[in-house]
Amino acid sequence: MKTFKRALLTCAITAAAFHPAAATTPKNELVIAIMMTTMRGLDPHEVNQLEAAEVVANLYDRLIALPPDDITNPQPSLAESWAVSDDGKRFTFKIRQGVTFHSGNTVTARDVEWSLHRLVKLGLAPSTDLRQWGFSAKNVDQLIRATDDQTLVLETPEVWNPNLILYSLASYSTSIVDSRFLKSKEKDGDWARNYLQTADAGSGPYSLVTWRSNQLLIADAFKDYWKGAPAMKRVYLGHVPESSAQRLQIDAGDVDVATRLSSTDLSGLERDGKVTVQKVPGFGFYYLALNQKDEVLSNPKVREAFRYLIDYDGLAGSVMKYYGIKQQTIIPGGLPGASTEMPYKLDIEKAKQLLAEAGYPDGFSKVYFAQPGTPESEVGISLQNNAAKAGIRLDLQIGDQIGKFRSRQFELFSSRTGERLPDPHAVLQSYATNANNADDAKLAGLVAWRSAWDVPKEIQNMVTAAAHETDQEKRDELYARINEAYLRSSPALVTSFQRTDPKAVRNEVKGYVGHPTWLTRWDTVTKGE
Description:
Blueprint: H1 2-9, E1 29-34, H2 50-59, E2 64-65, E3 75-76, E4 79-84, E5 90-95, H3 109-122, H4 128-131, H5 140-143, E6 144-148, E7 151-155, H6 162-168, H7 179-183, E8 206-212, E9 216-221, E10 234-239, H8 243-252, E11 257-258, H9 263-272, E12 275-290, H10 300-307, H11 312-316, E13 324-326, H12 348-357, E14 364-370, H13 376-389, E15 392-398, H14 402-406, E16 412-416, H15 424-432, H16 447-450, H17 457-468, H18 472-488, E17 493-506, E18 509-510, E19 526-527
Parallel strand pairs: 1-10, 1-11, 14-15, 14-16
Antiparallel strand pairs: 2-3, 4-5, 5-7, 6-7, 8-9, 9-10, 11-17, 12-16, 12-17, 13-17, 18-19
Helix pairs in contact: 10-12, 15-17, 17-18
């Protein structure tokens, strides 16, 4: 462990730092191996990635909490209670008294107001969690306001299902920041954005000590936390990008949690019996996007053919064993309207037939972008091989091409999504709505727009109606209809597996519970024998 700490302090975690002779981690410290490559900052109103979200979840609090084992049941957090008006548009929150920020400042409704205004006015990707309900830089000052130090009023321009609003206020994107402290850190009207890249201004159970990009992050327990001081006095996150290195380190007891392991390494650790592998369900999918600006790929029969080129069963038993649950419909399992229907399987001859009917009996050639890392690269190789058997020649290019996907500069692209709201609307808004398919609309937050898919109006209208519906039985019926209509449409977004995020946790670690919306907490962790 001393070797490990020296590695952290010199900002370089290597395999040599986890010598088999090292002792297990201290009982009051938690050590997590992660991949920090995509961690670009820690501003809660800017981050949009799993590892950074987990950090934010522990540096900050939110108005609402969603328990990982009861994800659709909003619980009080900074808001000790709330009420919804009869017309469903006005939410009144009573802010918990006696809560302090890490600076020592008291948390008030004024901080909540400033934080939510900041989120909307910055207008970055996470602002979708509020902007989608009609909040904008022009109206947020009037619609979200503190009426006194303990009362916040939030009014929506339209009536939405109230749970959608509450779920949004539980997202890491709506974390509450210390407004008085941050105002002193502002430069040129930047809302202290530059400062928060490598610092924190929260009231959460941990405060940031240091973060060095692609090296390490250290957070200390906040002894004055309103729920009580956490058992883990310090948390270390180390950048260990290789699966094999993470496996060696958790097997030796040098780390407590490993979060980026291949299915092969996860299987080996499970057999050894020292760790428990959590398959944390997520509200997103592994998908294949076909650019509808491409004449060939916009043909419905070509889109349908690709559904028969995915080796659902083979992948489920290999690279996707820990990373996904086989699913071909669009509403995630466990949510209203979900379906277990599986009409597709790997069928090369059926794909050839559809391609011939589309006018491409000899196939065609396309460039295929797949995201790097496991399991995305393995999924890409599998599709490339199957497509070749049907006459489709895919130039597979594995690398970080997300920028080209967001700007619609691609032919085929595959990756995964993760949504922050435990509700069908979170997925459907992205996969099944596209209000303006023009290039200059720049609706880059929607994977349907990125794919240039002009989603059938029947589907879009049902998605909107379901989000507004307050009668849950009617809402369930709408979502069942959407599932069927989406499948029939031969969508430009081919879903194959519902996302799961595996975490390997040593058996002596208790209370580290992966959260479906990336809000995994450290203050619930203890260690036993």
